[in-house]
Design brief:
globular; 20 strands; 496 residues; 9-stranded mixed beta sheet; alpha/beta; 11 helices; 5-stranded mixed beta sheet; 2 domains
Protein backbone atom coordinates (compact mmCIF):
# COMPACT_ATOMS: atom_id res chain seq x y z
CA UNK A 1 0.00 0.00 0.00
CA UNK A 2 2.51 2.60 -1.13
CA UNK A 3 -0.18 5.19 -1.14
CA UNK A 4 1.69 8.45 -1.43
CA UNK A 5 4.49 7.25 -3.68
CA UNK A 6 1.94 5.63 -5.98
CA UNK A 7 0.19 8.96 -6.32
CA UNK A 8 3.47 10.54 -7.41
CA UNK A 9 4.00 12.96 -4.51
CA UNK A 10 7.59 14.10 -3.88
CA UNK A 11 9.21 13.25 -0.55
CA UNK A 12 8.65 16.68 1.01
CA UNK A 13 4.96 16.57 0.19
CA UNK A 14 4.68 13.03 1.51
CA UNK A 15 6.22 14.11 4.78
CA UNK A 16 3.73 16.95 5.05
CA UNK A 17 0.82 14.59 4.32
CA UNK A 18 1.99 12.15 6.98
CA UNK A 19 2.00 14.99 9.53
CA UNK A 20 -1.47 16.09 8.42
CA UNK A 21 -2.70 12.50 8.76
CA UNK A 22 -1.46 12.38 12.34
CA UNK A 23 -3.29 15.62 13.10
CA UNK A 24 -6.49 14.28 11.51
CA UNK A 25 -6.32 11.25 13.77
CA UNK A 26 -6.08 13.49 16.81
CA UNK A 27 -9.04 15.61 15.67
CA UNK A 28 -11.41 12.91 14.39
CA UNK A 29 -10.71 10.02 16.74
CA UNK A 30 -12.86 11.26 19.68
CA UNK A 31 -15.97 11.12 17.47
CA UNK A 32 -15.56 7.56 16.17
CA UNK A 33 -17.44 4.60 17.60
CA UNK A 34 -15.06 2.07 19.14
CA UNK A 35 -15.45 -1.41 20.58
CA UNK A 36 -14.88 -2.72 24.08
CA UNK A 37 -13.16 -6.07 24.66
CA UNK A 38 -16.47 -7.44 25.98
CA UNK A 39 -18.38 -6.38 22.87
CA UNK A 40 -15.72 -7.69 20.50
CA UNK A 41 -15.62 -11.11 22.19
CA UNK A 42 -19.35 -11.51 22.84
CA UNK A 43 -19.73 -14.43 20.41
CA UNK A 44 -16.21 -15.80 20.71
CA UNK A 45 -16.50 -19.30 22.19
CA UNK A 46 -13.42 -20.03 24.35
CA UNK A 47 -13.41 -23.80 23.83
CA UNK A 48 -11.69 -26.13 26.30
CA UNK A 49 -10.21 -24.90 29.57
CA UNK A 50 -7.81 -27.86 29.47
CA UNK A 51 -7.02 -30.47 26.84
CA UNK A 52 -8.32 -34.01 27.27
CA UNK A 53 -6.38 -37.13 26.24
CA UNK A 54 -9.38 -39.48 26.31
CA UNK A 55 -10.82 -40.24 22.88
CA UNK A 56 -14.55 -40.03 22.22
CA UNK A 57 -16.94 -42.59 20.79
CA UNK A 58 -16.21 -41.71 17.16
CA UNK A 59 -16.13 -38.99 14.53
CA UNK A 60 -19.24 -37.17 13.36
CA UNK A 61 -18.51 -34.79 10.50
CA UNK A 62 -20.72 -32.58 8.37
CA UNK A 63 -20.02 -30.46 5.31
CA UNK A 64 -21.92 -27.73 3.48
CA UNK A 65 -21.11 -25.03 0.95
CA UNK A 66 -22.87 -22.10 -0.62
CA UNK A 67 -22.18 -19.79 -3.56
CA UNK A 68 -21.43 -16.22 -2.51
CA UNK A 69 -21.01 -14.61 -5.92
CA UNK A 70 -23.79 -12.10 -6.64
CA UNK A 71 -25.80 -12.51 -9.86
CA UNK A 72 -25.20 -8.96 -11.09
CA UNK A 73 -21.39 -8.92 -11.42
CA UNK A 74 -20.60 -6.79 -14.47
CA UNK A 75 -23.86 -4.88 -14.15
CA UNK A 76 -23.35 -3.50 -10.66
CA UNK A 77 -19.93 -2.28 -9.54
CA UNK A 78 -18.02 -4.72 -7.37
CA UNK A 79 -14.32 -4.07 -6.80
CA UNK A 80 -11.79 -6.87 -7.04
CA UNK A 81 -9.55 -7.05 -3.97
CA UNK A 82 -5.89 -7.90 -3.68
CA UNK A 83 -3.96 -5.77 -6.14
CA UNK A 84 -4.97 -2.37 -7.47
CA UNK A 85 -7.71 -0.01 -6.42
CA UNK A 86 -10.43 0.96 -8.90
CA UNK A 87 -10.62 -2.46 -10.56
CA UNK A 88 -14.33 -3.23 -11.06
CA UNK A 89 -15.17 -6.86 -11.83
CA UNK A 90 -16.36 -7.38 -15.41
CA UNK A 91 -17.37 -11.03 -15.11
CA UNK A 92 -17.04 -14.30 -13.20
CA UNK A 93 -14.41 -16.93 -13.97
CA UNK A 94 -15.48 -19.18 -11.10
CA UNK A 95 -17.63 -18.66 -8.03
CA UNK A 96 -16.76 -17.50 -4.55
CA UNK A 97 -17.90 -20.05 -1.96
CA UNK A 98 -18.26 -20.40 1.77
CA UNK A 99 -17.42 -23.96 2.84
CA UNK A 100 -18.06 -25.23 6.35
CA UNK A 101 -17.06 -28.41 8.18
CA UNK A 102 -18.57 -29.61 11.45
CA UNK A 103 -16.31 -31.85 13.59
CA UNK A 104 -17.48 -33.77 16.65
CA UNK A 105 -15.34 -36.35 18.46
CA UNK A 106 -18.13 -38.00 20.47
CA UNK A 107 -16.73 -36.90 23.83
CA UNK A 108 -19.93 -35.01 24.67
CA UNK A 109 -18.14 -31.66 24.83
CA UNK A 110 -19.72 -30.33 21.63
CA UNK A 111 -18.63 -29.78 18.07
CA UNK A 112 -16.15 -27.48 16.39
CA UNK A 113 -16.72 -25.55 13.15
CA UNK A 114 -14.03 -24.72 10.61
CA UNK A 115 -15.22 -22.53 7.76
CA UNK A 116 -13.34 -21.13 4.75
CA UNK A 117 -14.57 -18.18 2.69
CA UNK A 118 -13.22 -17.39 -0.79
CA UNK A 119 -12.19 -13.80 -0.17
CA UNK A 120 -9.11 -11.72 0.55
CA UNK A 121 -9.94 -11.36 4.25
CA UNK A 122 -12.64 -10.83 6.86
CA UNK A 123 -12.41 -8.62 9.92
CA UNK A 124 -13.09 -10.06 13.36
CA UNK A 125 -16.14 -7.80 13.49
CA UNK A 126 -17.59 -9.56 10.44
CA UNK A 127 -16.66 -12.95 11.89
CA UNK A 128 -18.49 -11.95 15.08
CA UNK A 129 -21.66 -11.19 13.13
CA UNK A 130 -21.51 -14.60 11.42
CA UNK A 131 -20.98 -16.28 14.78
CA UNK A 132 -23.88 -14.33 16.24
CA UNK A 133 -26.21 -15.51 13.48
CA UNK A 134 -25.20 -19.14 14.05
CA UNK A 135 -25.44 -19.04 17.82
CA UNK A 136 -28.67 -17.05 17.97
CA UNK A 137 -30.32 -19.40 15.46
CA UNK A 138 -30.22 -22.14 18.15
CA UNK A 139 -29.90 -24.62 15.26
CA UNK A 140 -26.77 -26.19 16.74
CA UNK A 141 -27.41 -27.37 20.29
CA UNK A 142 -23.83 -28.17 21.28
CA UNK A 143 -21.22 -25.80 19.89
CA UNK A 144 -17.70 -25.52 21.24
CA UNK A 145 -15.99 -23.25 18.74
CA UNK A 146 -16.62 -21.44 15.43
CA UNK A 147 -13.61 -20.48 13.31
CA UNK A 148 -13.85 -18.66 9.98
CA UNK A 149 -10.86 -18.09 7.74
CA UNK A 150 -10.29 -16.44 4.37
CA UNK A 151 -8.63 -18.32 1.53
CA UNK A 152 -6.99 -14.98 0.65
CA UNK A 153 -7.76 -15.07 -3.06
CA UNK A 154 -6.69 -11.85 -4.79
CA UNK A 155 -9.47 -12.06 -7.39
CA UNK A 156 -12.59 -12.00 -5.23
CA UNK A 157 -14.93 -9.13 -4.40
CA UNK A 158 -13.48 -6.70 -1.86
CA UNK A 159 -14.52 -7.67 1.67
CA UNK A 160 -12.18 -5.33 3.55
CA UNK A 161 -12.78 -2.02 1.81
CA UNK A 162 -9.17 -1.37 0.81
CA UNK A 163 -9.59 -1.69 -2.97
CA UNK A 164 -12.33 0.79 -3.82
CA UNK A 165 -12.50 3.45 -6.49
CA UNK A 166 -9.57 5.32 -5.02
CA UNK A 167 -7.38 5.19 -1.95
CA UNK A 168 -9.38 5.92 1.18
CA UNK A 169 -12.68 5.12 -0.50
CA UNK A 170 -14.57 2.07 0.69
CA UNK A 171 -14.51 -0.85 -1.76
CA UNK A 172 -17.06 -2.93 0.13
CA UNK A 173 -20.62 -3.33 -1.08
CA UNK A 174 -23.03 -3.26 1.85
CA UNK A 175 -25.59 -5.59 0.31
CA UNK A 176 -22.95 -8.13 -0.70
CA UNK A 177 -21.37 -8.04 2.78
CA UNK A 178 -24.76 -8.72 4.36
CA UNK A 179 -25.45 -11.59 1.97
CA UNK A 180 -22.00 -13.11 2.53
CA UNK A 181 -22.48 -13.18 6.28
CA UNK A 182 -25.99 -14.60 6.09
CA UNK A 183 -25.01 -17.32 3.61
CA UNK A 184 -21.87 -18.26 5.54
CA UNK A 185 -23.86 -18.62 8.75
CA UNK A 186 -26.39 -20.81 6.94
CA UNK A 187 -23.61 -22.99 5.51
CA UNK A 188 -22.37 -23.61 9.05
CA UNK A 189 -25.85 -24.60 10.20
CA UNK A 190 -26.24 -26.85 7.16
CA UNK A 191 -22.90 -28.52 7.86
CA UNK A 192 -24.17 -29.53 11.30
CA UNK A 193 -27.40 -30.83 9.80
CA UNK A 194 -25.50 -33.00 7.29
CA UNK A 195 -23.24 -34.75 9.82
CA UNK A 196 -22.33 -38.40 9.29
CA UNK A 197 -20.38 -40.99 11.23
CA UNK A 198 -17.04 -42.14 9.93
CA UNK A 199 -13.27 -42.08 10.25
CA UNK A 200 -10.70 -39.31 9.92
CA UNK A 201 -7.25 -39.60 8.32
CA UNK A 202 -4.35 -37.30 7.55
CA UNK A 203 -1.44 -37.34 5.15
CA UNK A 204 1.13 -34.97 3.71
CA UNK A 205 2.90 -34.32 0.42
CA UNK A 206 6.14 -32.42 -0.22
CA UNK A 207 5.41 -29.45 -2.51
CA UNK A 208 8.61 -27.52 -1.83
CA UNK A 209 9.39 -27.35 -5.56
CA UNK A 210 6.04 -25.67 -6.25
CA UNK A 211 6.32 -22.81 -3.73
CA UNK A 212 8.28 -19.56 -4.09
CA UNK A 213 9.32 -17.17 -1.31
CA UNK A 214 10.01 -13.70 -2.66
CA UNK A 215 11.28 -12.11 0.55
CA UNK A 216 14.38 -13.05 2.55
CA UNK A 217 14.71 -15.39 4.35
CA UNK A 218 13.54 -18.11 1.98
CA UNK A 219 11.53 -20.14 4.46
CA UNK A 220 8.19 -21.90 4.15
CA UNK A 221 6.28 -25.00 5.16
CA UNK A 222 7.22 -27.51 2.44
CA UNK A 223 4.26 -29.79 3.14
CA UNK A 224 0.70 -29.84 1.89
CA UNK A 225 -1.52 -31.47 4.52
CA UNK A 226 -4.77 -33.28 3.82
CA UNK A 227 -7.27 -34.20 6.51
CA UNK A 228 -9.76 -36.64 4.98
CA UNK A 229 -13.09 -37.76 6.42
CA UNK A 230 -14.37 -41.11 5.16
CA UNK A 231 -18.09 -41.57 5.97
CA UNK A 232 -19.17 -45.01 7.19
CA UNK A 233 -22.14 -44.98 4.79
CA UNK A 234 -19.85 -44.94 1.77
CA UNK A 235 -20.87 -41.48 0.60
CA UNK A 236 -18.30 -38.98 -0.68
CA UNK A 237 -15.24 -38.12 1.40
CA UNK A 238 -14.54 -34.64 2.74
CA UNK A 239 -11.03 -33.21 2.26
CA UNK A 240 -9.63 -30.32 4.30
CA UNK A 241 -6.42 -29.18 2.59
CA UNK A 242 -3.81 -26.83 4.04
CA UNK A 243 -0.85 -25.33 2.18
CA UNK A 244 0.94 -22.00 2.35
CA UNK A 245 0.49 -20.15 -0.94
CA UNK A 246 -1.05 -16.86 -2.03
CA UNK A 247 -4.00 -17.45 -4.42
CA UNK A 248 -2.87 -14.61 -6.67
CA UNK A 249 -2.09 -16.42 -9.90
CA UNK A 250 -4.49 -14.47 -12.13
CA UNK A 251 -2.22 -11.48 -11.69
CA UNK A 252 -2.80 -7.75 -11.50
CA UNK A 253 -4.66 -7.55 -14.78
CA UNK A 254 -7.55 -9.80 -13.82
CA UNK A 255 -11.05 -8.44 -14.39
CA UNK A 256 -12.98 -11.54 -13.35
CA UNK A 257 -14.11 -12.77 -9.95
CA UNK A 258 -12.33 -16.00 -9.03
CA UNK A 259 -11.32 -18.14 -6.08
CA UNK A 260 -8.02 -18.65 -7.96
CA UNK A 261 -6.16 -21.98 -7.89
CA UNK A 262 -7.99 -23.53 -4.87
CA UNK A 263 -11.16 -23.66 -7.01
CA UNK A 264 -9.45 -25.90 -9.55
CA UNK A 265 -7.74 -27.97 -6.89
CA UNK A 266 -11.20 -28.62 -5.48
CA UNK A 267 -12.70 -29.47 -8.86
CA UNK A 268 -10.19 -32.28 -9.40
CA UNK A 269 -10.90 -33.73 -5.97
CA UNK A 270 -14.67 -33.41 -6.32
CA UNK A 271 -14.78 -34.84 -9.85
CA UNK A 272 -12.44 -37.73 -9.13
CA UNK A 273 -13.90 -38.79 -5.77
CA UNK A 274 -17.48 -37.54 -5.72
CA UNK A 275 -16.59 -35.92 -2.41
CA UNK A 276 -16.17 -32.40 -1.07
CA UNK A 277 -13.23 -30.09 -0.49
CA UNK A 278 -12.17 -27.13 1.65
CA UNK A 279 -8.97 -25.11 1.32
CA UNK A 280 -7.45 -23.44 4.39
CA UNK A 281 -4.38 -21.33 3.76
CA UNK A 282 -1.25 -21.35 5.90
CA UNK A 283 1.48 -18.90 6.86
CA UNK A 284 1.74 -16.91 3.62
CA UNK A 285 3.51 -13.76 4.76
CA UNK A 286 6.86 -13.01 3.35
CA UNK A 287 5.74 -13.56 0.38
CA UNK A 288 4.80 -17.16 -0.30
CA UNK A 289 3.29 -17.90 -3.68
CA UNK A 290 3.40 -20.41 -6.53
CA UNK A 291 6.61 -21.38 -8.27
CA UNK A 292 6.10 -19.14 -11.32
CA UNK A 293 4.86 -16.05 -9.52
CA UNK A 294 7.59 -13.92 -11.14
CA UNK A 295 6.11 -14.76 -14.56
CA UNK A 296 2.63 -13.92 -13.29
CA UNK A 297 3.69 -10.51 -12.00
CA UNK A 298 6.37 -9.48 -14.48
CA UNK A 299 5.71 -11.06 -17.88
CA UNK A 300 2.89 -9.23 -19.72
CA UNK A 301 2.61 -12.11 -22.22
CA UNK A 302 2.31 -14.86 -19.63
CA UNK A 303 -1.01 -16.75 -19.70
CA UNK A 304 -1.96 -16.32 -16.05
CA UNK A 305 -5.36 -17.96 -16.33
CA UNK A 306 -4.00 -21.13 -17.94
CA UNK A 307 -1.20 -21.36 -15.38
CA UNK A 308 -3.55 -20.75 -12.44
CA UNK A 309 -5.92 -23.52 -13.55
CA UNK A 310 -3.09 -25.95 -14.24
CA UNK A 311 -1.45 -25.22 -10.89
CA UNK A 312 -4.73 -25.87 -9.09
CA UNK A 313 -5.33 -29.13 -10.95
CA UNK A 314 -1.82 -30.31 -10.16
CA UNK A 315 -2.30 -29.53 -6.48
CA UNK A 316 -5.56 -31.50 -6.60
CA UNK A 317 -3.71 -34.45 -8.11
CA UNK A 318 -1.12 -34.10 -5.36
CA UNK A 319 -3.81 -34.41 -2.71
CA UNK A 320 -5.24 -37.52 -4.33
CA UNK A 321 -1.76 -39.02 -4.67
CA UNK A 322 -1.01 -38.91 -0.95
CA UNK A 323 -0.11 -42.36 0.42
CA UNK A 324 0.55 -43.66 3.90
CA UNK A 325 -2.31 -41.81 5.59
CA UNK A 326 -2.63 -42.15 9.36
CA UNK A 327 -5.96 -42.52 11.11
CA UNK A 328 -6.82 -39.75 13.58
CA UNK A 329 -8.34 -40.88 16.87
CA UNK A 330 -11.71 -39.25 17.70
CA UNK A 331 -10.53 -36.35 19.83
CA UNK A 332 -10.65 -32.58 19.36
CA UNK A 333 -9.18 -30.03 21.72
CA UNK A 334 -9.38 -26.30 21.08
CA UNK A 335 -8.76 -23.13 23.02
CA UNK A 336 -9.36 -19.53 21.95
CA UNK A 337 -8.13 -16.39 23.70
CA UNK A 338 -8.81 -12.72 22.95
CA UNK A 339 -5.80 -10.53 22.26
CA UNK A 340 -5.26 -6.76 22.30
CA UNK A 341 -2.63 -5.33 19.95
CA UNK A 342 -1.45 -1.75 19.76
CA UNK A 343 -2.18 -0.36 16.29
CA UNK A 344 0.78 1.71 15.12
CA UNK A 345 -0.20 1.87 11.45
CA UNK A 346 -1.41 5.37 10.58
CA UNK A 347 -3.09 4.09 7.41
CA UNK A 348 -5.10 1.55 9.41
CA UNK A 349 -6.10 4.24 11.89
CA UNK A 350 -7.29 6.55 9.12
CA UNK A 351 -9.13 3.65 7.49
CA UNK A 352 -11.02 3.10 10.72
CA UNK A 353 -11.75 6.78 11.28
CA UNK A 354 -13.30 7.32 7.85
CA UNK A 355 -15.30 4.10 7.96
CA UNK A 356 -13.43 1.87 5.50
CA UNK A 357 -11.98 -0.69 7.91
CA UNK A 358 -14.38 -2.26 10.39
CA UNK A 359 -11.94 -4.17 12.56
CA UNK A 360 -12.74 -4.06 16.27
CA UNK A 361 -10.76 -1.09 17.63
CA UNK A 362 -10.52 0.07 21.23
CA UNK A 363 -9.45 3.55 22.27
CA UNK A 364 -9.22 4.58 25.86
CA UNK A 365 -10.51 8.03 26.97
CA UNK A 366 -7.95 10.84 26.76
CA UNK A 367 -5.54 8.52 24.94
CA UNK A 368 -4.86 8.76 21.21
CA UNK A 369 -3.46 5.21 21.07
CA UNK A 370 -5.69 2.70 19.28
CA UNK A 371 -5.79 -1.02 19.97
CA UNK A 372 -6.97 -3.81 17.69
CA UNK A 373 -9.09 -6.39 19.47
CA UNK A 374 -8.43 -9.77 17.91
CA UNK A 375 -7.95 -13.42 18.93
CA UNK A 376 -5.82 -16.54 18.55
CA UNK A 377 -6.68 -20.23 18.76
CA UNK A 378 -4.88 -23.54 19.03
CA UNK A 379 -6.58 -26.78 18.02
CA UNK A 380 -5.51 -30.42 18.12
CA UNK A 381 -7.04 -33.37 16.28
CA UNK A 382 -6.38 -36.78 17.80
CA UNK A 383 -4.03 -37.37 20.70
CA UNK A 384 -1.15 -35.06 19.71
CA UNK A 385 -1.54 -36.00 16.05
CA UNK A 386 -2.52 -32.73 14.31
CA UNK A 387 -1.79 -29.31 15.81
CA UNK A 388 -3.33 -26.23 14.19
CA UNK A 389 -2.36 -22.65 15.04
CA UNK A 390 -5.35 -20.51 14.05
CA UNK A 391 -3.84 -17.09 13.46
CA UNK A 392 -5.15 -13.67 12.42
CA UNK A 393 -3.43 -12.08 9.45
CA UNK A 394 -0.61 -13.23 7.18
CA UNK A 395 2.00 -14.80 9.42
CA UNK A 396 5.62 -14.95 8.34
CA UNK A 397 6.70 -18.59 8.11
CA UNK A 398 9.80 -18.09 10.25
CA UNK A 399 7.53 -17.22 13.18
CA UNK A 400 6.40 -20.85 12.96
CA UNK A 401 9.71 -22.51 12.04
CA UNK A 402 12.14 -20.37 14.05
CA UNK A 403 14.38 -19.88 11.01
CA UNK A 404 14.82 -16.15 11.58
CA UNK A 405 17.36 -13.99 9.83
CA UNK A 406 20.52 -13.70 11.96
CA UNK A 407 21.41 -10.23 13.23
CA UNK A 408 24.00 -9.60 10.54
CA UNK A 409 21.49 -10.33 7.76
CA UNK A 410 18.44 -8.60 9.23
CA UNK A 411 17.31 -5.09 8.39
CA UNK A 412 17.69 -3.87 11.97
CA UNK A 413 20.90 -5.67 12.91
CA UNK A 414 19.70 -7.72 15.88
CA UNK A 415 18.42 -11.24 16.47
CA UNK A 416 14.72 -12.08 16.73
CA UNK A 417 14.19 -13.16 20.32
CA UNK A 418 11.05 -15.30 20.01
CA UNK A 419 9.85 -18.74 20.94
CA UNK A 420 8.61 -20.09 17.62
CA UNK A 421 5.22 -21.76 17.20
CA UNK A 422 6.84 -25.10 16.32
CA UNK A 423 8.33 -25.16 19.82
CA UNK A 424 4.89 -24.85 21.40
CA UNK A 425 3.50 -28.19 20.21
CA UNK A 426 4.52 -31.84 20.34
CA UNK A 427 2.07 -33.03 17.70
CA UNK A 428 3.11 -35.39 14.89
CA UNK A 429 2.19 -32.74 12.34
CA UNK A 430 1.45 -29.08 13.00
CA UNK A 431 0.72 -26.13 10.75
CA UNK A 432 -0.68 -22.61 10.63
CA UNK A 433 -4.18 -21.68 9.49
CA UNK A 434 -3.75 -18.09 8.39
CA UNK A 435 -6.22 -15.19 8.13
CA UNK A 436 -8.40 -17.01 10.65
CA UNK A 437 -11.08 -15.08 12.52
CA UNK A 438 -9.48 -11.75 11.55
CA UNK A 439 -7.47 -10.06 8.79
CA UNK A 440 -4.61 -8.02 10.23
CA UNK A 441 -2.19 -7.74 7.33
CA UNK A 442 1.37 -9.04 7.60
CA UNK A 443 2.86 -10.30 10.86
CA UNK A 444 6.62 -9.69 10.62
CA UNK A 445 9.58 -10.50 12.92
CA UNK A 446 10.79 -7.32 14.62
CA UNK A 447 14.43 -7.70 13.61
CA UNK A 448 13.47 -7.38 9.94
CA UNK A 449 10.60 -4.90 10.33
CA UNK A 450 11.66 -1.65 8.68
CA UNK A 451 9.64 1.52 8.20
CA UNK A 452 10.50 4.74 6.44
CA UNK A 453 12.06 7.04 9.04
CA UNK A 454 9.97 10.06 8.01
CA UNK A 455 6.89 8.59 6.36
CA UNK A 456 6.30 5.54 8.53
CA UNK A 457 3.61 3.31 7.05
CA UNK A 458 2.93 5.66 4.13
CA UNK A 459 5.86 4.56 2.03
CA UNK A 460 8.18 1.65 1.26
CA UNK A 461 11.78 1.93 2.28
CA UNK A 462 14.90 -0.06 1.43
CA UNK A 463 17.26 -1.58 3.96
CA UNK A 464 21.07 -1.58 3.96
CA UNK A 465 21.05 -4.58 1.64
CA UNK A 466 18.83 -2.87 -0.94
CA UNK A 467 15.81 -5.04 -0.07
CA UNK A 468 12.39 -3.35 -0.23
CA UNK A 469 10.04 -3.60 2.73
CA UNK A 470 6.57 -3.37 1.22
CA UNK A 471 4.82 -5.63 3.73
CA UNK A 472 5.42 -3.27 6.65
CA UNK A 473 3.06 -0.72 5.09
CA UNK A 474 0.28 -3.30 5.44
CA UNK A 475 0.92 -4.41 9.01
CA UNK A 476 -0.26 -3.44 12.48
CA UNK A 477 3.21 -2.70 13.83
CA UNK A 478 6.65 -4.07 14.73
CA UNK A 479 5.54 -5.42 18.11
CA UNK A 480 2.65 -7.48 16.71
CA UNK A 481 4.62 -10.68 16.08
CA UNK A 482 6.06 -10.75 19.58
CA UNK A 483 2.69 -10.10 21.21
CA UNK A 484 1.01 -12.88 19.22
CA UNK A 485 3.73 -15.44 19.90
CA UNK A 486 3.82 -14.61 23.59
CA UNK A 487 0.04 -14.97 23.81
CA UNK A 488 0.09 -18.28 21.92
CA UNK A 489 2.83 -19.63 24.19
CA UNK A 490 0.72 -18.71 27.21
CA UNK A 491 -2.37 -20.33 25.65
CA UNK A 492 -0.69 -23.61 24.73
CA UNK A 493 1.01 -23.84 28.13
CA UNK A 494 -2.28 -23.28 29.96
CA UNK A 495 -4.09 -26.25 28.37
CA UNK A 496 -1.39 -28.92 28.74
Amino acid sequence: MTVLRFLGFPVAVRRLISVIAALLILIISPFVEYSTPEEASEYMLPGDASFSREAGSGWSVGFAKTVLTPDDVGKKTYYIAGYNSDNPAEGVLDDMYARAVWLDDGTGRGGVVLCAVDCVGLSRHDVGEIRAAVIESSAIPSLRSVNICATHTHSAIDTQGLWGRSYFSDGKDEQFQKSLKEKTAQAIVNAYASRREGRLYYGTADISDRIADTRTPVDFDPLLTSVRFAPADGSGDVYIVNMSCHPELLGRGTKNVSADFPAYMGRVIEERTGGEFMFVNGAVGGQLSADRIDDVLKDPDFDCEAYMKQYGREMGETVLGISGEKEISPLINIRTEPLTLECENTIFKLGKLIGILNNDIQKKPLDTTMYILTEISYMELGDRQIGMFLMPGELYSELYSGNFLPAEQSANGFDADYKALSEMTDCERSFVVGLCNDALGYIIPDNDFLNNEWLGFFDICKDRFGRTHYEETNSVGPDTAGAILEAMDSLTSSVK
